[in-house]
Amino acid sequence: MSKTIFIAGCDGKTGRAVSELFASSGWNVIGADIKNSTDAKVDQFISLDVTDAEAVAKAADEIDQQTPVTAVLNAAGYEIAKGFEETSDEEWSQLLDTILGGSGNLCKAFAPKMAARKDGKIILISSDYSKEGGDHVIDATAANTLHGFGKSFGVEMAPENVLVNVLFVNTPFDLEKVAETVLFLADKDTYTSAQVVSITGMDQ
Q1: Which of 72, 129, 144, 185 has the most CB within a 10 Å radius?
Q2: Beta-bridge mates of residue 47
């Protein structure tokens, strides 16, 4: 039986790159995105807003009836890319709801099912804006909320053999390297948990 990965944000550049690599590696790929359709290489597509906790829980229950999910990747993104002073409260809330809230919703929906099987990997994408010019204070702050969440939740879930890690990636992303690292954490790694795994290209 092939392993299954659930990719939130499958229609973005990162989600598509990961979908393609996992599909070519023999995995069953279930993709989700806020859009109504995708060109990503997935075996099954779900239109889903990760900020909707009820919808995420329902999707996880329906998928679990079909097949156990081996790995979950949250690649769903939201970027403001403007100064802190110019960012409205509504934009700030939407950013946090997507980056932190979406990750929390996915973990709450999938982690208990993985824990029951004593098997699972959860990988959360966090963008590293430290070497990119321009105003990214808001984006960087939201991305870094995942560090504390991933570390703490990773410690909580490790005894259940559910490995939770944050993938901290320099922007712009090297999509090939990101996909390869996700595949390693989901498929080969059996020990790493509660870590912020940094991908820093040699040219950065």
Answers
A1: 72
A2: 33
| pTM value > 0.90 | yes
pLDDT for the residue 204: 40
* 136: region left, alpha or beta (phi > 0 left; psi from -120 to 50 alpha): alpha
Identify the CA nearest to 75 among candidates 18, 151, 139: 18
Does residue 203 carry a pLDDT above 60? no
As a three-state string, the secondary structure of 142-190 is: HHHHHHHHHHHHHHHHHHHCEEEEEEEEECCCCHHHHHHHHHHHHHHCC
d(CA 146, CA 136): 16
Pairing state between β 28-33 and 71-74: unpaired
| Arithmetic mean of pLDDT, 4-10 | 98
d(CA 16, CA 175) in angstroms, rounded, equals 9
**Does residue 28 come out as left (phi exceeding 0), alpha (psi in the -120 to 50 range) or beta?**
beta
Q: What is the dihedral of CA 97, 122, 106, 92, to 10 degrees?
A: 0
Indicate the average pLDDT of the chain: 94
Which residues neighbour 183 within 8 Å (Cβ) at sequence distance 6 or greater?
18, 21, 22, 25
Cβ neighbors of 63 (< 8 A, separation 6 or more) are: 6, 30, 69
